[in-house]
Amino acid sequence: xxxxxxxxxxxxxxxxxxxxxxxxxxxxxxxxxxxxxxxxxxxxxxxxxxxxxxxxxxxxxxxxxxxxxxxxxxxxxxxxxxxxxxxxxxxxxxxxxxxxxxxxxxxxxxxxxxxxxxxxxxxxxxxxxxxxxxxxxxxxxxxxxxxxxxxxxxxxxxxxxxxxxxxxxxxxxxxxxxxxxxxxxxxxxxxxxxxxxxxxxxxxxxxxxxxxxxxxxxxxxxxxxxxxxxxxxxxxxxxxxxxxxxxxxxxxxxxxxxxxxxxxxxxxxxxxxxxxxxxxxxxxxxxxxxxxxxxxxxxxxxxxxxxxxxxxxxxxxxxxxxxxxxxxxxxxxxxxxxxxxxxxxxxxxxxxxxxxxxxxxxxxxxxxxxxxxxxxxxxxxxxxxxxxxxxxxxxxxxxxxxxxxxxxxxxxxxxxxxxxxxxxxxxxxxxxxxxxxxxxxxxxxxxxxxxxxxxxxxxxxxxxxxxxxxxxxxxxxxxxxxxxxx
Amino acid sequence: xxxxxxxxxxxxxxxxxxxxxxxxxxxxxxxxxxxxxxxxxxxxxxxxxxxxxxxxxxxxxxxxxxxxxxxxxxxxxxxxxxxxxxxxxxxxxxxxxxxxxxxxxxxxxxxxxxxxxxxxxxxxxxxxxxxxxxxxxxxxxxxxxxxxxxxxxxxxxxxxxxxxxxxxxxxxxxxxxxxxxxxxxxxxxxxxxxxxxxxxxxxxxxxxxxxxxxxxxxxxxxxxxxxxxxxxxxxxxxxxxxxxxxxxxxxxxxxxxxxxxxxxxxxxxxxxxxxxxxxxxxxxxxxxxxxxxxxxxxxxxxxxxxxxxxxxxxxxxxxxxxxxxxxxxxxxxxxxxxxxxxxxxxxxxxxxxxxxxxxxxxxxxxxxxxxxxxxxxxxxxxxxxxxxxxxxxxxxxxxxxxxxxxxxxxxxxxxxxxxxxxxxxxxxxxxxxxxxxxxxxxxxxxxxxx
Lengths: 486, 450
Ligand SMILES: Cc1cc2nc3c(=O)[nH]c(=O)nc-3n(C[C@H](O)[C@H](O)[C@H](O)COP(=O)(O)OP(=O)(O)OC[C@H]3O[C@@H](n4cnc5c(N)ncnc54)[C@H](O)[C@@H]3O)c2cc1C
Description:
Oligomer: heterodimer
Largest sheet of chain A: 8 strands, mixed
CATH superfamily of the largest domain in chain B: FAD/NAD(P)-binding domain
Low-confidence stretches of chain A: 477-486
Shape of chain A: globular
Number of domains of chain B: 3
Structural class of chain B: alpha/beta
Bound molecules: flavin-adenine dinucleotide
Helix content of chain B: 10-25%
C-alpha cells in the first residue's frame, strides 16, 4: 500500500491534518508512537481556545490562532466535542498593567479578534465577583472558549478514520528513507511507503526532522504544572482569568473547564527531558501562589489531580509551518507551543496548502462523513435513558459514580474506532475516572471491563503505557469469586 | 429482606446504601412500624465496605463479640431476613428531588411537597424516579486520593488508596505489590500493612505527616508493632519515582509547625507500591446537589438529634454524616435515623424548633449540630473528635456563656471518636444554643482554680 500522506504524531495537530486530508481525498496513514491519541501536549494543557489577542500580529501564531478558533467552532459542533464560550479576562493589577492591557487590546484588533474591550474594576467585579481587589481593570475577551482537548483530538481522528484514513498506535517512527517518495520505518520493524509526510511529532518534531537530515530548531521543552479542582470548586471562577505576561512567562491562569472543574496553572520551567511530565513541590507552590493573586479564595483543598504538560518550544519565536529544506514533500509542523490547540485546524489548512504546492492533488468528496455523535448517558433525559436501557441493560450500569458514566459508554470506548485499551485511555475516551475520586472507585471495574472485552487477564491491564500494570498477579491461594458491581 | 417488586408505589422510607448504616436504618424503620421500606444499593450484594473488611474487631459494642466485617453485616442481614424490608441491588441513586449529581437539569420536581423523589439507574430497574415520604442518606465515604494531598512526582501505576488495595486483595484475589510504603496512618492503611505482610509483601514503612497517628491505637499495636513495621511520625513522601510502574519514593521529615519537609532528611525507599491512607471524605454529592446544608467541619449534612437534615424528611447517618471509628457507633446512630424516618413517614408531624450545638476549643466537630426543643427533654448522645491528642482533657457543655456540665477524659486522640451521653437534666438548662468545648487539662493549674 502506497499512501498519499503519512502523518507522524497524533496529537491535536496530527489529528487535524489527518481529518482535513482525508476529507480532501488523500489516502492517509497516521503513525503514533503512544498507545492512544492525544498523549503528548494535547493531553496536558490549559484547554483554552484563545481569542487571539496574545500573539504578535503578523506571526503564524496570530494568523492560525484566530482562524483556528473560528474553524474549531464548527468542528466542535459537527463532531460533538464539548466547547463552551465562557469568555476570558486578563487581569490588570495597577497602572503598569493597564498599559499592557491596552497593548493586548491593540494586538487583538490587529489580529481581527472581535468583541474585545477594557473593563474597569466595577464591571470586572460584576463579571467575576471572586476576583482579587487588587485587580483594577481587565481586558475582556468574550469569544475565548474552553474545550475538551482529548475529545477534540479523538473526534478529529475518528472523523479521519471514518473517511478512510488508517491509524497505527504504538508505532514510533525510527527511520525515514527518501527515494521515490518516502519509506517510513517504525520501531516494531514495519515499514510504510508514502508520497508525502507531515511531521506533527510535537516535542519530538525536531528529532523526526533529523531522520531525513533536517535541523531540530534547538528544542527547548518547557514544562507547565497544574492543579485540577473538583467540580464543587468549578464555580469559583466564571471566566478564564489570565494575568499580564511577565518576563517569567505568560502567567498562571484560573479557569472553569468545559466539564465544570477548575483548572489552575501553568508555570513555565525549561527542562532537559521533553518527557519529564512529573510535577514538583516547588512548581506546584509557584502555581498556587500566582493563582491566589487572581483569586485570593482559591479552594485548592478541592484539588483532585496534579499534572504537567510540556510545551514544544524551540529557538524559533513562531510556529514552524513549512516544507523541509531537505524535501518539499516533507512538511514540518514544529514548535507548536501555545496556542497550538486553538490553532490546530488552521495549521492543518496551511499544511494542506503546502502539500498542494509540493504537487499533491486533492479531490472533492461530496460523500465525505462530516458528523460524529457520542451518546452521553448523563446528558439524556429520563425517557431517552429508559429507551437505551431497555435495548441494552449495560446503559443502566453506572460504573463511574463521580461522572455518571455507564458500562455501555465504556464498552463503546474500548471497541471504538480508536480503541481505548488502558484505564487512562478509557478515562479520556469515555470520561470514567475523571471525577473527584480519580478512578478510586471505578478503576478496578474499568479494569474488569477491559479484561472482559479484550479477552485478557485482569493482570494484563495497564494504567497507561505498557508496563504500567496495576496488579502483579493472583494471590498465592485461590480466592472466592467476586459478586462485583459490574 | 426481599427483592423489590413494585417500584411504582409510594414508599415510607427509602434508604440509600446497604452498608452498615443503611442496614441498621432500614431495620429500625421497620421496627418502628414503617412497612414500605426499600434499600437501594449500587453493588450486587449488601454489606458495603464491610464485605472487604475480613479482619476482626467489629461488633464488640453491639454484639459483645469480635466479628469480621462480613460476619457483622451478616448479623444485620439475619435480623432483616425476618422483616419485609425490600432490597434493590445493582442500582445507583443519581439524584434526589430532581437534582442530579452531574447537573444535567433533566429534573422532574416532586409532585407533592411531602413526597421525595429518588432517581435511580440500574440494568434491571431502569432509570426512573422512585417516591418516598422519607429518605435516609447512608452512602458512606470515599478515600482521599493522591490529588487530595497534591503529592508531587511522576504518575506511574502502583499508587493506590488502601481501600482499593483491600478490595483487590480481599475480594478479587490479586497481589498489588511486593515492596510497599504506606503514606498516612489511617485505620485502613494500618490494616493493610498487616494484610499485605501476611500475603508475603514487604511493608517498608508507614509514613505519617502528623506527630501522631490518626488510627486506632489497637491497630498500631496489632498491625505495625507486631510485625516490626516502622511508623515514621512527622514524615511525608515528597516525591514519587518511575514512569510506568512505581520504582521508589523519597521520604523526608517535616517541620512540626509548618509541616514543610526539612532539607537534608530525605531517605529513599525502593518500592513498587505506595498505599495512601490519608483520610476519608463523606460521599455527599447527592446531598449537595439536593441543596441540603452541609457542615464544613464534618463534610456531612447538618442534622438534629433525629439525624434529620435541613430538608424535612431527609435523614443522614453513618460515614456519610461524619467519619466514624467503629462500625458499632454507625449502627447505633443509623438506628436513630431509621426510627425517626419511620416516625416522620407515618405521622408527618412538623419539626419542632431547634438550637445549634457548636464545637469549641480543641474539638474539631460535633454531631448532631442541632437539637430540637423536644429533644432537650431526653438524654442525647453527642459525637465529636479532638484536633490533636490530649493526654488529660475536659469536655465542657456551655450555654450562653454558662458551663452546664464538665466531664474529665483521658487520652483523647483524633483517631478515636468522642461519645458523650448528656442527661436530660442538663440539656433542659440550655438557653439559646449549646457549645461543646474540649480543653487540655493541666492538673496543676486545675487544682489552683477556685
Ligand atoms: C502547559 C501547556 C499549556 C497549553 N495551553 C494551551 C491552551 O490553553 N490553548 C492552546 O491553544 N494551546 C495550549 N497549549 C499548546 C497545545 O497544547 C499544543 O500546541 C498542542 O497540543 C500541540 O499538539 P501537537 O499535536 O503538535 O503535539 P502533541 O500533542 O505533543 O502530539 C505529538 C504526538 O507525536 C507523537 N510522536 C512523537 N514522535 C513520534 C515518532 N517518532 N513517531 C510517531 N509518533 C511520534 C507523540 O507521541 C505525540 O502523541 C499548551 C501547551 C502546554 C504544554
